[in-house]
Design goal:
nucleotide-binding; D-amino Acid Aminotransferase, Chain A, domain 1; binds magnesium ion; Rossmann fold; about 25% strand; metal ion binding; five-stranded antiparallel β-sheet; coenzyme F420-2 alpha-glutamyl ligase activity; single chain; alpha+beta; binds adenosine-5'-diphosphate; about 35% helix; Dna Ligase, domain 1
Length: about 300
């Protein structure tokens, strides 16, 4: 492999998404070594190794975080960055960072014990959403519609989590978002495509739960939120989930995913996300090689 011109692709398994990224990288002359979660990581001196970059596409957020930490400590640049992955794999981290940075998001509270949840739901007018810090595909996300509902939520967890290890949890106001949320895919600094995820049956509009995809034009407000997100998280590959809040008449950020899936959606909206990712990887490698040529010639 060419010195520093290959990519280490960290995955749990090679899905359609990753295979397509590999094919596009090959067309751009970039070699890829696939690294499964079960495999050893190349943690030697990174400047001597073949890899210019590690692309992190592990399914499990825990694996993504751990493997990125190891690679980063060994000196290999990762996409996304360790900072971005640390924030994006934790909904509480996101809420804190977005608050600090003035990124619009639903009103929220961090709650550290079950008893405190009762006060929190009152503050949100007996309608709110409880979220574990780490989750995806809508798992563990619960809409709470009053005291009795909350008692049920607490009771259902008591036997499986008697020491309340799952706390703190994030409590958000329930946003009147219509029957959809908005997914924007960002590559590098650019929002490359947006679409609505529409569900008439389920208030959770994850595509995994059956939401339908409807392409959407990226307007100025959406573009401006994406710019803010990139400012805060750094360049990278993101799936930003937004709501249009029909009460406040503004867009808010629900969450940002660090490993957006696109196998199903790109066939509907037609934007080849894998191509954009491959092209961006190439740009990063070229940028890096220019920097190292400059350093070496000084
Ligand atoms: N505060 C909220 N108000 C209304 N709907 C919400 C709220 N939070 C989440 N949802 C719905 O639940 C879905 C899953 O929540 P999300 O925070 O994105 O978790 P996940 O990581 O599991 O996708 C969202 O796509 C959205 O449809
Ligand atoms: Mg989501």
């Amino acid at each position: 492999m060419d010195q520093n011109n290959a990519v280490l692709l960290c995955v749990t398994k090679l899905r359609e998404e990753e295979q397509r990224i590999i094919d596009h990288l090959a067309e751009l002359g970039i070699q890829v070594q696939v690294n499964l979660d079960s495999m050893e990581l190349p943690l030697g001196r990174s400047e001597d190794g073949p890899f210019g970059l590690a692309l992190i596409r592990c399914l499990s957020q825990k694996n993504a975080l751990h493997r990125t930490q190891f690679l980063e400590l060994a000196g290999l640049e990762t996409l996304n960055s360790i900072k971005a992955i640390t924030i994006c794999t934790n909904k509480i981290h996101q809420a804190i960072v977005f608050e600090k940075s003035g990124i619009p998001q639903p009103k929220f509270k961090l709650i550290f014990s079950p008893a405190k949840l009762f006060e929190a739901i009152q503050e949100f007018g007996d309608l709110c959403v409880i979220k574990p810090a780490t989750s995806s595909w809508g798992r563990g996300i619960a809409r709470i519609t009053g005291r009795e509902c909350l008692e049920g939520w607490i009771a259902a967890r008591e036997s499986v989590d008697p020491n309340h290890q799952a706390f703190p949890v994030l409590v958000q106001e329930y946003v009147e978002k219509g029957d959809y949320d908005i997914r924007v895919v960002i590559v590098g600094r650019t929002p490359i495509v947006a679409f609505r995820r529409v569900s008439e049956e389920n208030w959770k509009t994850n595509t995994h739960l059956g939401a339908e995809i409807e392409p959407l034009t990226i307007n100025e407000e959406i573009a401006s939120i994406c710019e803010q997100l990139v400012e805060v998280l750094g360049e990278g590959v993101y799936g930003a989930d937004l709501f249009f809040d029909y009460k406040q008449l503004r867009y808010v950020v629900c969450e940002v995913n660090q490993n957006p899936e696109f196998a199903k959606s790109w066939k509907i909206h037609g934007v080849d996300v894998a191509y954009h990712i491959a092209q961006y990887v190439k740009d990063v490698l070229v940028r890096k090689s220019k920097v190292s040529v400059k350093v070496n010639s000084q």
